[in-house]
Amino acid sequence: MTHDILLVAVMAIVTAAIRFLPFILFSSSRKPPGIVTNLTRLLPAAVMGMLIVYCLRNTNLLAGSHGLPEAIACTAVVISYVWKRNTLLSILIGTILYMVLLQIVF
User: What's the CA gap between 59 and 66, in Å, rounded?
Assistant: First the structure.
């Protein structure tokens, strides 16, 4: 029991430290290094690309619906994002559309 409590406490402290450390290091008196500035610009697109590859990795274009639900949902995400510029709304629309297509249409 004591081991479990200590384990949770250490995890909480490490998690809090990781989250607060950037704010402590890059307070208003210090400017962040160039690499940090570049990462803030590049990482969102890299993460989105990685998520796309992860989500579409098992799509079989030679069987069943030939990837149509995935293609339609991805197109809806792109169109809704270009239209509204709201990431969460686009993800929600794509997810709901994909589920409807899988459960009802295909």
Answer: 8
